[in-house]
Every structure is written in structure tokens, then in C-alpha cells.
Amino acid sequence: MDDPFSFSSQSTPSTPVKTYPEGEGAPVSWKTAFESVPTIDFKAQLNAEQYAAVTAPAGPALVLAGAGSGKTRTLTYRVAYLLSQGVQPWEILLITFTNKAAKEMLHRVEDLTGIPQHRFWGGTFHHIGQRFLRMHGQVVGISKDFTIMDQGDAEALLSDAVREVDGAFFRNKDNPKAKVVAEIISYARNTLKPIKTVLDEKYPYFKNLCQLLQAFASAYEQRKRKQGMADYDDLLELWLKVLETDKAVAAEFQGRFKHILVDEYQDTNRLQASLIDTLAANHQVMAVGDDAQCIYTWRGAHFENIVTFPNRHPGTQLFKIETNYRSSPQILELANAVLVNQAQNEGYSKELRAILPNKQKPYVVQAMDNRAQAQFIVRRIQGLLNDGRSARDIAILYRAHYHAMDLQMELSRSQIPYIITSGVRFFEQSHVKDLMSQIRFAWNPQDTIAFFRTACLIPKIGPKTAERLLELAHKEKLKTQGTLIQSLTAEAVVVKVPLEAKDDWVDMSLTLQNLEEALRPPPPPPISDGDLFAPKPTNQAAFIPKAPHEVIALAIEGWYGDFLRTLHPNWTSRRDDLDSLVGFAERYADMAELLGQLVLLNSESTDRSAEEPGDVVRLTTIHQSKGLEFPVVFIIGLAEGLFPIKRAVDEGNIEEERRLFYVAVTRAMEELYLSYPMVSLQGGPPTRLEMSCFLQELPENTYELLHLAPVKMGRW
DNA sequence: TGCCAGGTTATTTTT
DNA sequence: TAACCTGGCA
């Protein structure tokens, strides 16, 4: 697996990946496969707008695809079209933002063309960056087998770096917390701006900390390199750095891709845009997106990227796809009205054109308070279900998770099945991370974050104690020539473990030792003994590491499996999570790959979500609803202060809130309910809430107002 | 130094 | 709801 691009978004050892060396044609078998691609009548299967984009001649192209206009379809057919023109699959680079999108896209291409997914070069920015760096990272001083940290790990490492530079920093409560420091630094990196600029623009109240933050950033950087770690941003930042440093490598990749396709281009940040621009040195790039749906500027997304794309790629052809296949004309009329109120000069003008039959106008619903809002929705849902609607056709969208609290209670009470996609992801759940930390530490004893996480689980052991013990173990290691993990159980270390923690400490260390033995050959025995019968070095050559899923099973059987019971009351379900991790890991042949993927993949790819889609109502934030569609959509909390949310108003980010509202509205296919509570009972005395400005701005003929009387009225 | 209980507070979160 | 913080105690 040396070729960085010989992968699909999912690693499936069952279908071995073939790669073709540079300059060589594909093997004959492949050609046969290629010829068997069904001929597609592009003109018949696409509308005129889509057809134009799909069959665009080579060269830079920008496809503005409105909500529900068949964006994915267009992209998929574009790939098929290129293939039909003789382009080889490995000459196409397909970049998406999410794993979900990558998976879906590759899947659909395979369905359409019959060519297996893994022939295509596709994945998320981060996936591709990872593979690239595993190959060429040394150019910028990162080792091949770096470990990728997730958000939490990165913050922990950053905290360490901060304390190293200024031990008292976090004690001052006026200073930003580790999370915020991380945010600032990350934002700077993703937007290619100096920290100073970021502070000026977004955090003026931390301006005086500029020097300090810069010092934190570089200390953090050093730590990462020293410990062989990379955070998410590194995958992009260092990728770009390599391309800029090593012209030969850059040229190789620039020549390799004849066609680069980028999905959701409006959500690229400056760093990602630079990557694309660099790779697409010959302007062989098609960007697809919708600037009206850019909702991630707070994380560095820069929707002007889409606006200035033609400047950076001279000769760009512009395609607009505006026929909407998703929503009723009434819903689209409202959606278009949302955009009319956009500040001027915000992106491209667009108007979605309906082709579906008429339906009911969207409703605006005023409820007394949150509770009444929830009750209204529950009653309405019951009505829909009685009319034969499936629960899965219904979604409730909101701006922030906590807006849905009353609703959850009300739904549970009425026994309406629902799922809520909450903020915590599978791999970020504490027990999953606990377990994986042990494996990570066994895999890479340099990974002190993993060690601390594991050690501090034990009662009576906190960070300070853990640090002392680790130091002792290091000393011991030098003495005995063993491994660090072997030293954990050395007498000199164990005596320093707090009395009550001893049993757990030893158990934990023994498990770690088991894991280590499963992963790596034992170190050469000390020579000084003169022991002629010591195991011979040949043992090492013969060592075969255990498969990742076996290692995970080993860890569960070990110390943590039992310890978990003492940790959480709901340990059985957590134990199930861990067991499902074993199944998940079966897909991976080696630990390095698994550890890398674990961090890059989020909940989508777990077996868990595969089971999820049942016939249930879906509750989700608007951000997470992007790309989805539902026949019936409720958008709740449409009051000033809730949506647009107060903080966004304070910071002057109304336009992003408006785009968010636009995204929410365009999820709906047939029925749309926009509701808000008129009184807030949250914390303290009841306060009156105004109708959201987004509703106030709408022409009155775009919706029907429904004022809920306290008593039951009519059907609801 | 570490633990625990109780209280507070709440943006959004592709990787 | 849950995650986080704080203060007081062992």
C-alpha cells in the first residue's frame, strides 16, 4: 500500500486494491472491464442544464447547483461521461467533504458504470491528505507512521504546550480555555491568516494575547512533531507544504490528475482551495457547489472561494442548475424569498425553479411556549401518521441541540419513535476512546496523551501521579533495556503507585503488555547476561502481529472490560459498543491503518448507524441535515435570539444564519412548518420572544399563519 | 493531589 | 440532557 491514492473511501481488504505504476497502462483485465461499461444515453437521462455540465469540455468549470437540483447526480454522470470519453479512472480525483458524501458518490458511480469504487481516486480532503503524507511527509519533517489525533487529543496536547510556555495561563480566568485557544489557532491555519489577523477580526478581546498565542502555536507544533502526531489541520496544511516544497512531487501529482472534481465547493476554506488550486495547476478542475448553502464560515469556510473561482482559473465555464426536483412550488417560493433578503453582493443570483405539482403553503405556527410548540408538533405528527405517513418521512430541524429538549420529552411521552443525531460521535464516546487509548499507547509508547488518558482512569491516579509514574518507568526502561510498557510493572514503579490504585495499575499494565506483545516483536534480550539460551533474534523476524480486531478483543478482555463496570451505570450498552468495534476492525489488515481511519471516520461509518434508519422521526440540527430531504419538515425555534441565534446576531453573522435558514427550508419536499414559541421560560422570568426576522421578512403570501389557541382547535 | 456533589449553562461541528 | 466547572473536603 504505497500508492497514496490506491484507496476508496472505505478500506475493504476483501477487495484488494490494485494500482498501476506511473506511465504504465492498465492491465488487460481492466480494459475488458472498462469496455463492459454500459453505454449511457446522457441526453435522455439528464435535463438540459445537467447535460451541459456533465458534457462540459475539459478545462475549468464551475457548476452552481441549487438545492435539490440533482447535484450528486450531475457529478456522478460527469464521472461516467469522462470515462466514456476514454479518461481512465485513476486520472480522476473526486474530492468531497464528508465520508458520507464520498461513500455515496463512489457508490453511485459504481452503480452507474459498473466499475468498482476502488478504481477511482476519491475521498475526503483529509483522507487524501493522510495518504499523501504517509508517502511524502518526510519532505516537511513528519514521519511516515504519524498518529492522527482527534479534536480531544489535539486539545490535550495543546494544553500541555500552553502550560509549558506559560504555566499560569489557564489559572487566569480571563484567558481563553484550551478549546478556544485551539479554535483560534486552527482557524488561523485553515484560513491561511496570521494569528494576529484572526484576533483582530474575530477575537478583539484577546488581542493582547497575540504573542503568547503564537508561542503556544509553535510549542504545540513542536510537540506534535516530536511525538509523531498530526492533527486534522496538519493533514491539509502539510500536504500543501509538501506540494510547495517539493516541485517534483507536485509535478507528479499535477500531471497525474486529468480531472479534479470537487463537491460542496462553497464550504472549502482557504487552505483547501489552495490545495485544489495547486493540484489543478493546469486548471483541470470542476467545482460544484451552491454559495447560498455555505454554512460553515465559523470553521473557516470561505464562500468567496466559489465567487472568485473564475479569477483563479481563467476561462472558467459557468453552469447553473436550477431546476428543483425536490420541493413543491410553494416551498420553493418561500425559499427563494429567503434569498431575496440576502445582503447585496452576496454571491451569485439564483432562483430555484419548481416542476413538482402544487401543495399546501408552508405554515407559520405561533405557540405559547416551547411546551406548546412541542405539543403542536406531536399532535400534528400523530395526525400525519394516522393519515398513513411514515415516521421516517418526518424531520424536525433546529438551530441548536438544546432547542429540542421539550420536544424530546413530548415525543417520548407520546411514544412516537424518534432518533436524534446528537453531537457526540461514536468514536468520541469516552469508553471507545478509553479503550483505543490503551491500544494506541501499546502501539506507540511515545503517545503520552494515550497513556495519560488510560492511567488517569484509575481512581487515585490523576495527572500528576501519572506523570511521576511515567517518568519512573522511563528511568526503569533505561536500566533494564526492556520496553517502556514492561517497565510499568517494575518494582520501582509499582511502589510509588497509590495504595488503593495498585491492583488496577498492575492489571492495566499487564493488559498493555499483552497488547504490546500482540503488536510488536519483543525487544532483543539484554546481552550482558551472557545467557547462551536466550531467545535468538530469529524470533523477531518470525513475528507476525495480531490482526487489529484480535488486538481490540484482547483489550476488551483485559483490564478495561471489567473496569468499565465500575465506571458507568450503563456499562452493558457501552460494552456492546466496544464489541461492535471488534467487528468494525475486522475490515482492517493492519493497526496503522485502523488507527488512522478511526480518527478520520466519524459515526457514519460505524455499524451502529447502519442499524439506525428505522421508521422513526428524525430530530437533527440544520447543519447535520444538509444534503438530506424529507417530505415533511418542521423547523422549530424561529424566534429572535434562537434563530438567528443570539451570538450570531451579536457577532454580525446574520447572513450565515440566513443561509442556514435557507438550507433548512429547502430540505422540505411537501409540507413545511415553521414554528416558534412566543414566550421563553428558560432560566429566570418568562421573556417575550419576537418572531424571527427571517419570518418577518417573508412576503405574507408565501405562508399561512397559524395561531395556536390554548384549547384544541379543529383537527390539531 | 484527587474526589465528589451540586449547580450551571447551552451554537453550529464535515475531519 | 449532559457536560462542565467549582468549591470544599479527605
Kindly list the characteristics that best describe this protein.
19 strands; DNA-binding; disordered N terminus; 716 residues; seven-stranded parallel beta sheet; alpha/beta
Description:
- This protein is of the alpha/beta class.
- It has 33 helices and 19 strands.
- Strand 6, helix 13 and strand 7 form a beta-alpha-beta unit.
- It starts with 27 loop residues before the first helix and ends in a 9-residue tail after the last strand.
Helical fraction equals 40-55%
Spans of at least 5 consecutive residues with low confidence: 1-33, 603-611, 711-716
Strand content: 5-15%
Order of neighbouring strands in the sheet with most strands = 13-14-12-15-16-11-19
Largest β-sheet summary: 7 strands, parallel
Sheet/helix structural class: alpha/beta
Number of DSSP-assigned strands: 19
| Number of helical elements | 33
- Outline type: globular
End-to-end separation in angstroms reads 61 Å
Q: Roughly what is the average pLDDT, rounded to an integer? A: 84
**Rounded radius of gyration (Å):** 28 Å
Please give the structural blueprint.
Elements: H1 28-35, H2 42-45, H3 48-54, E1 61-65, H4 71-84, E2 92-96, H5 99-113, E3 121-124, H6 125-136, E4 147-148, H7 151-165, H8 178-190, H9 195-202, H10 210-227, E5 229-230, H11 232-245, H12 247-256, E6 259-262, H13 270-279, E7 285-289, H14 304-312, E8 317-321, E9 323-324, H15 329-340, E10 353-354, E11 363-367, H16 370-386, E12 394-398, H17 405-413, E13 418-420, H18 430-443, H19 448-455, H20 463-480, H21 484-487, H22 491-494, H23 502-519, H24 538-541, H25 548-557, H26 559-567, H27 571-585, H28 591-600, H29 607-611, E14 617-621, H30 622-625, E15 630-635, H31 646-650, H32 654-665, E16 668-677, E17 679-680, E18 687-688, H33 693-696, E19 704-707
Parallel strand pairs: 1-7, 1-8, 2-3, 2-6, 4-5, 6-7, 9-10, 11-16, 11-19, 12-14, 12-15, 13-14, 15-16
Antiparallel strand pairs: 17-18
Helix pairs in contact: 3-4, 4-5, 6-11, 7-8, 7-10, 8-9, 11-12, 11-13, 15-32, 16-17, 18-19, 18-23, 18-25, 25-27, 26-27
The protein binds a DNA duplex (15 and 10 nucleotides) through helix 5, helix 6, helix 11, helix 20 and helix 30.
